[in-house]
Design a protein that fits this description.
Radius of gyration: 22 Å
Strand order of the largest sheet: 3-2-6-7-8-9-1-10
Oligomer: single chain
Largest sheet: 8 strands, mixed
Number of domains: 1
Structural class: alpha+beta
Number of helices: 10
Helix content: 25-40%
Bound molecules: iron/sulfur cluster
Strand content: 15-25%
Length: about 350
Amino acid sequence: MQTENYLIRKSSLEKLFGNLIGNGKIVYAPKAKGNLALFDKVQAFGEITEDYIVTANSAKSVTFPRTEKLFSYHKSKESTEITDAANNTFPDVILWGTRPCDAAAFIPLTETFNGDFQDIIYNKRREKVLILSFSCKRSDEYCFCTSVNSGPGNTAGSDVQFTKLSDGDYLAEVITEKGQLLVKENCNLFEAKPEEDKEPNLAIVATRFNQEEIQAKLQNLFENPVWDDKSRACLGCGSCSYVCPVCSCFDIQDEAHGNKGTRLRCWDSCGYGLFTMHTSGHNPRNTQGGRWRQRILHKFLYMPNKSKVAGCVGCGRCSRSCPADINILDTLTSLQEEKPNE
Ligand code: SF4
Ligand code: SF4
């Protein structure tokens, strides 16, 4: 649909939040915790912080929980009884205050869960999510959204995007039918579109590399010293995957107690040494360099080759959270200088 623009006053934004809570919606929004901002459930408008570039955690856990119970089982000699199977009935959730990069991240995340296999649980959760993003007025040295075909005012993935204008009121861009429904249900809060343009109210994020050039280069960089060089300090802690809004690796584990237990789906990370360990003891990715290469190739070669969308939205979280100060932007910019293998 064609984007519709409105003005929403600051006071009306608070009323909109109140209406959503009043209608029983579950709202996740950035909340201050120490010197971090974290996506969390909120009940009151006053709990939401505006003081963040991106939240330390991403919003992906709303559709892809960190640990998810799939079912319980009870084995007997004759049979296995399955109970408490995930029932596909999920509540309406509002993501309030996602940045454009986080909203855009749901595009590759949803692609992944709808590749060779359609993940019903993920899709049912995703259907129930309304994304109200807020464009970026600030960025830092870790942000590189403009290098991955996005930007501080990118509306892809959002249902409605709000941009704070110079007088403190907001431009509301309505992008999807879900967003249109929100406006219809709260029509007294939305006014005729403002005169002021969006662009001067956005952060400036320098373009640091060309994604298509990196993709072409990676075709011939499987064997290259850059992978060991850039990952030498890696501790294999997995933080980069856990904070990433696009990373989707998971493991299925049984929490067993005798003949009964619970089957769980849990986040996993290609940065872990055991991630590709075979039962034979052979590990095809037996060095941190091999694991770092896989992370970059998956996001910047395999995913765009398969679905035309990169597995990275340039939020910079992985670099901000890395205890070893490994910076994905540093790897990507240095790849530009690398000569492909013959
Ligand atoms: S966060 Fe840093 S140290 Fe941890 S696995 Fe990722 S790159 Fe390695
Ligand atoms: S790889 Fe890093 S910069 Fe890219 S989306 Fe994931 S966390 Fe953000």
